[in-house]
Write a structure and sequence with these properties.
heterodimer; A: alpha+beta; about 50% helix; elongated; B: about 120 residues; Arc Repressor Mutant, subunit A; three-stranded antiparallel beta sheet; disordered N terminus
Amino acid sequence: MAAWRMQNRKQMEDELERELRSDLELEAEEQQEAGVSAEEAQYRALRSMGNTTLVKEEVRLAWGGLWAEQLWQDLKYGLRGLRRNKGFTLVATLSLALGIGGNAAVFSLINAVLLRQLPYRDPDRLVQVTAYCPKGIIVALQQRSRTMDIAAYSEDSQVNLTGQGEAIRLVGSRVTANFMPVLGVEAQLGRVIRGGEDEPGRDRIVVLSDALWRRKFGADPGVIGRPITIDGVDREVIGVMPPSFEFPSSNTELWTPLHMDPSNSFDFWSTGFIPLLARLRPGVTLAQAQAEVRSLISQVIPLFPYALPLTWSADATAVPLQQYLARDLRSKLIVLQFAVGLILLIACANVASLLLARAAVRQKEMALRSALGAARGRIVRQLLTESVVLGSVAAIAGLGLGYGVLSLFKLVLPRDAPGLANVYIDPRVVLFAALLAVTTGLVFGLLPAWITSHLNLAATLRSAGQRTTSGGGGRINAALIAAEVSLAVVLAVSAGLLVKSLWALAHVNPGFSPEHILTVPISPDHSLCEERSRCIALYSQLLQEAQSIPGVSAVTATDGLPLSGEFPYLPVELQSHQLNPSETLAPLFWAGAVTPGYFNLMRIPLVQGRTFTAADSENSELVVVVSAATARRFWPGKDPIGQHLRPPSDWGNPPWRTVVGVVGDVRQYQVSTELPDWLHGVVYMPYPQSLGSDRQLPSSMTMLVRTSRDPQYVAAEIRRLVQELNPNVPVGEMRTMDGIISSSKTQERSLMWLFLSFAGSAVLLAAIGTYGVVSFSTAQRMYEMGVRIALGANRRDLFGLVLRLSLRLVLAGVAVGVVLAVGATWTLRSFLYSVSTRDPLIFLSVALLLISVAIVAGFFPARRAAQVDPMTALRAE
Amino acid sequence: MAPEKRTELLQGTLDMLILRTLQLGRAHGHEIAKHIQRTSDEVLQVEHGSLYPALHRLERKGWLSSRWETAKDRNREFKYYRLTAAGKKQLLAEESKWKQLAEAITRVMGPAEES
């Protein structure tokens, strides 16, 4: 078919040629017959025919279908042009690839997190009900709701898997029996948890994630029906989920039914406030569901067996699930998109200015082509095709680059965000990059193409080369460069602010000294600690034996390692602060259990009183230590020692605990903040007397070891010790305290590096652009320079002339950029620590940086101008 | 040639003139151009740059057909165009449209000449 077409085409061309030639010959013959000389006849015939090439072009247009052929020609021509100008092509492609690659990478994140449908049935009908509820309320809500089918799930918690080789720690979620049916997911093997299976007696089942099934059970289909032991409870494996199922997070490895036992009043009403999701029933709108949530909440509050503040879940509503899941990522993605958008703009401006400069050089070529019969539209189209070819080449390079930087970008986001594991360059991303390539190609190509095609033909052909002016091109080019510089300023300021912020973070005193501390998580089954003395004995024996490992100078343990994500808390009632009924619940405190020696080992200073000793045992007087900020907040001007506090209970009054010491404040949660605002204080309890949030003795503790020896050796020794004491106790991964602090800042750090590389690229692009424009305009003005010298100008004047040109370009850009940056950096507000978005030092440094870029970019052209030989320059005409 | 008498063809009328010329029988491009020039007393000059694209366009629309044939007076082949049945219909349509237009323009222009 195509071959036939080409054949046909060739034939048509030949015939057209023949037709026109026969006309020409006939005209000449007729002229001759009218008595004109042969030569004159020939000449007249040619004149009457006009521009043969143009006639042929017009006829071809009439043939139609021509655009494809012209496009092919333009493509070939464009590629040839790109090959010829290797330097130009390289710089332009790299600039654009940077822009397109960054955008493709960010778009693939946005695609995965915000755009791609959640892998559940009718995901648009799923909502998150933004209330955290105990089991009793969940049941009440399920029974009363008319608009939604409500399910609940616990956020990831750690459980032990024993009896399958070495005991291991897994991440699990407890879910209501209708959870999986509400999401509309099916197991890839076996079945999901179904209605009624959260009742005691029927709930001894478990569903595995695909990853766990492959890792721990060798992807054996026979796993269905097999009993496994989770946290000391035997459960039957009933199903394996597909790999795409990652809820509540991508870390979740197994799902067990929520234990719904109304006879255990404490468990049913007081612990485990967990999140809710729901499916809208057919025909129900989101607004109806939201209204129902408000009324349901007020209906169920009286059901609590204890007094609840009226403000409980007052702001609860229903939001689309996808929106809820992306809530923390959205602002970061916006900032990233903003930054890569700027890079792309800069790249476009850069390439446009390069093309403009090149267009000025190619004026003669274009003039010649139009003299030879190329229509203006055709020339514009050809130039645009070149740009789009350039854009497409850059898009391919950009996709490769995007693929490479994607993992870098992912570091900026929380690792376990659902959907993030499935970020890849899918067809939608490729389409996006292709669109970008074509759009940018048109954007940066249109201006040069327009200018080039509106040439004064005769003037251009007549003028003798170097003195050619680029029409309006020069001024437009200067504006492009100034714009580029201003955008680079915005990125550089952003990067500067983030650098300063991270620097400030690095110099925060966390309240303890992390050097030479190893941490090892130890996690016996929760059931082991139901008998408190067994857990107490286990840890005291373990600590004692670890003390004798060679090279270990101190050992201690806690259930709330700072900055590690472990975050124990309890409501705390203070004897000195009677709550009145209208007040909210007792304030929540960070409440950690520690063994003696903890404060010493962590070098947390003792401010007042004493710390814990081995004498603070299960049966001795209940004592606590509070942080200095807590003491200031609750007992200002009073002696905190001897004050009393206790975790309140809805069933009877537990005994008061006495404050015996005050210690320095520690950054428990984040290096950047003292405490989240929902926590009002910090209290430490001696391990044998301590309570977890379920009011039981914490079973999982982190051992801290101060040692100067090889960490691996010490970790192996501890593992051996634990194995000897109890082989069913999993030992987690050893980490250094320094490492924990460092990884708590991973997201900040990667955001900073990203912006640094953005800013670096932007400044580099701006430098290239400035250099290009200045050296080009200097080259065009060599004649003028020669004249100036011949008329007695100082060479230093010429040097200054060119340098000033460069400075003028950049200063204009800096001025605009500073204004833009003031407006734009507010988006970074939430990512900055103790740095104002208008930090004058950063703005000043960035301005200076770009001014030095201007000097460097202007230096070489300026030197060329100063060294011009007037004779050569003038003769070149 | 009388350059001062030359005038530009109205947009779209060239097609009609070509069809009309071919109503008399086959003709090649050169003859068509010459015929239009002659019959208009050299007022209408047909540029090659308009003529040939128009011929090819009309052929593509199916109003003309073409064939290489030997000329009667010269021993050479030319590409001769003929009116097709569809072309004849088209010519009628264009003629009546043209007449309407010409009359309309005449009516508008007529009285003003008197004053």
